[in-house]
């Protein structure tokens, strides 16, 4: 093991995450934490690690961006034909992790996944910059390509195809919603005695159970 890496350490001293002063549902707390992260983490507050599982039970993880959330779940957008899209089609479950180092906070989410309503995908697609809209047509995400020139040629082709007309959302591109059954909040504390609160849903429509976990 690289000794320089092995010696890397950080002392945590975050605000307390008290069981009695947190809400019965995780979503108000997540909203509060995300708002604080937007103020402190600059451009990366909505970045999250998304983990999926393929048909061989092999996990895969990558960074994606949270684009919305409510009591139903957490929403992100991607190519349905990508590796993660095919993995979610075969195993519609996922885990996501948010890490906000300035605040010394982490949030873990686990749940089932569904495609969002077409109207919601349409609205979000219309809000994207035109170059990003074209990118959804240009990139056959996760497919092996011969090189950069291939992308540039496809970009020129679709720029011509949509010249002076609105860019339509491709049918293969849209949103997913992670419907959580577990959400865990982690707050860094001194001496590695961190605060951890886990919210677990009793069923799809029931209330949340809240538990204080050992660090």
From TrEMBL:
Binds 1 FMN per subunit. Keywords: Flavoprotein, FMN, Oxidoreductase, Pyridoxine biosynthesis. PROSITE patterns: PYRIDOX_OXIDASE. InterPro entries: Pyridox_Oxase, Pyridox_Oxase_CS, Pyridox_Oxase_N, Pyridoxamine_oxidase_dimer_C, Split_barrel_FMN-bd. Pathway: Cofactor metabolism; pyridoxal 5'-phosphate salvage; pyridoxal 5'-phosphate from pyridoxine 5'-phosphate: step 1/1; Cofactor metabolism; pyridoxal 5'-phosphate salvage; pyridoxal 5'-phosphate from pyridoxamine 5'-phosphate: step 1/1. Its cofactor is FMN. FMN binds at residues 62-67, 77-78, 84, 106, 141-142, 186, 196. Coiled coil: none annotated. Residues 173-215 form the Pyridoxine 5'-phosphate oxidase dimerisation C-terminal domain. Its EC number is 1.4.3.5. It catalyses: pyridoxamine 5'-phosphate + O2 + H2O = pyridoxal 5'-phosphate + H2O2 + NH4(+); pyridoxine 5'-phosphate + O2 = pyridoxal 5'-phosphate + H2O2. Gene3D superfamilies: Electron Transport, Fmn-binding Protein, Chain A. Substrate binds at residues 67, 124, 128, 132, 192-194. Catalyzes the oxidation of either pyridoxine 5'-phosphate (PNP) or pyridoxamine 5'-phosphate (PMP) into pyridoxal 5'-phosphate (PLP). Belongs to the pyridoxamine 5'-phosphate oxidase family. This is Pyridoxine/pyridoxamine 5'-phosphate oxidase. It comes from Larsenimonas suaedae.
């Amino acid at each position: 093991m690289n000794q320089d890496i092995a010696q890397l350490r950080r002392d945590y001293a975050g605000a307390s995450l008290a069981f009695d002063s947190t809400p019965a549902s995780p979503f108000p707390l997540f909203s509060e934490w995300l708002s604080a992260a937007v103020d402190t983490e600059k451009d990366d507050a909505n970045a999250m690690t998304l983990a999926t599982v393929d048909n061989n039970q092999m996990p895969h993880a990558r960074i994606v961006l949270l684009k919305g959330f409510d009591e139903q779940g957490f929403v992100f957008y991607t190519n349905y034909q990508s590796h993660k899209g095919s993995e979610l089609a075969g195993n519609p479950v996922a885990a996501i992790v948010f890490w906000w180092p300035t605040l010394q906070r982490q949030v873990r989410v686990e749940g089932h996944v569904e495609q969002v309503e077409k109207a919601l995908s349409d609205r979000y697609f219309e809000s994207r910059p035109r170059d990003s809209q074209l990118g959804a047509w240009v990139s056959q995400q996760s497919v092996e390509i011969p090189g950069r020139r291939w992308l540039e040629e496809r970009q020129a082709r679709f720029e011509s195809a949509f010249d002076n007309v609105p860019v339509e959302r491709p049918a293969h591109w849209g949103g997913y919603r992670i419907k959580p059954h577990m959400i865990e909040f982690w707050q860094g504390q001194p001496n590695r005695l961190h605060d951890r609160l886990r919210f677990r849903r009793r069923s799809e429509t029931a209330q949340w159970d809240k538990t204080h976990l050992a660090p």
